[in-house]
Design goal:
Length: 284
């Protein structure tokens, strides 16, 4: 064999070796990148939490009226505001009846029957839902029967805020929503911390989104890492809690996809909707 052939062969060998290591190394690398990728993620950019850290969180399970043989499956989140009341989003329950739901409290899981299961006796939707702007007044009360066994640990009511949050305050959102815009839902409860964005700034961000009915009204609030992205609620988190210092300030409502740098998540503004909530709560 001539020396040039030897050089050629060893070059091939090295190439081959490099190629196999790269090919073997790459998928792992990519998997890891995918997990921290923007804009999609899970409750995007979040962390695994425990129901004891968000004991007000419930999973709203639903089944279609034409498929009574099916199991109830996770549709939305919600927050326990008393032993027999859950606050969720109007868009979660519009056009449905109470018998289509179960509420699961005290569980870390999106599926299965861990925790406590109860039924919905009444749905009280905000009558001004979608009036004035798209997704405006996106709240509904669910009256539970039997009431939940509050235990001050994994099943606990959260206080409603009476003042809107300050822009820049760090809020915690949680849920079993999708791990990417249009992706798969999380099996375990996730949470993420995101700063509140002022309505003025948020309204500018949404200036060119959708038609003119998409506006950030005072009955909404926004949260997100502006200019950064990567942290947000996503599909299936709807109806769930946005909490600042142990008070419920927001209900997951809508957004342009999920976790985009230029589009904060939009929430029903609990403090602004407080009078509706108080008037519509059944007397104890
Ligand atoms: N509408 C969605 C749902 O039904 C929630 C959207 C929240 N989106 C967001 N980017 N924060 O679950």
């Amino acid at each position: 064999m001539s020396p040039s052939w030897l050089v050629y062969l060893s070059a091939c060998l090295i190439c081959c070796l490099v190629a196999t290591t790269t090919v073997r190394g790459l998928p792992l690398q990519e998997d890891q990148d995918a997990k921290i990728d923007i804009p999609d993620g899970r409750i995007v950019g979040g962390y695994v939490t425990d129901i004891a850290q968000c004991p007000y969180q419930i999973s709203l399970r639903y089944k279609g009226i034409t498929t009574p043989q099916n199991a109830y499956s996770h549709r939305c989140g919600g927050s326990i505001i008393s032993s027999n009341e859950v606050l969720t989003a109007a868009h979660c329950v519009i056009g449905t009846v109470p018998s289509q739901y179960k509420v699961v409290a005290g569980s870390n899981y999106r599926t299965g029957s861990d925790g406590v299961i109860t039924s919905v006796k009444e749905i009280i939707m905000h009558e001004g839902y979608f009036s004035g702007a798209a997704y405006n007044n996106d709240v509904a009360l669910l009256i539970l029967d039997p009431p939940l066994p509050l235990n001050n640990f994994t099943i606990k009511a959260i206080q409603l805020a009476s003042e809107p949050p300050l822009p820049g305050a760090i809020s915690k959102i949680s849920g079993w929503g999708t791990t990417s815009s249009g992706g798969t839902a999380s099996d375990v409860l996730l949470a993420v911390d995101v700063p509140i964005v002022s309505n003025e700034v948020c309204n500018q961000d949404y200036e060119d989104f959708g038609d003119e009915t998409y506006q950030i009204t005072k009955e909404m609030l926004c949260a997100g890492k502006r200019g950064v992205g990567g942290a947000d609620a996503c599909q299936g988190d709807s109806g769930g809690p946005l909490v600042v210092r142990d008070q419920l300030y927001g209900v997951v409502s809508w957004g342009n996809r999920c976790a985009l740098a230029d589009y904060p998540g939009v929430y029903a503004n609990v403090a602004e909707l407080r009078s509706w909530i108080d008037v519509n709560r059944p007397a104890l």
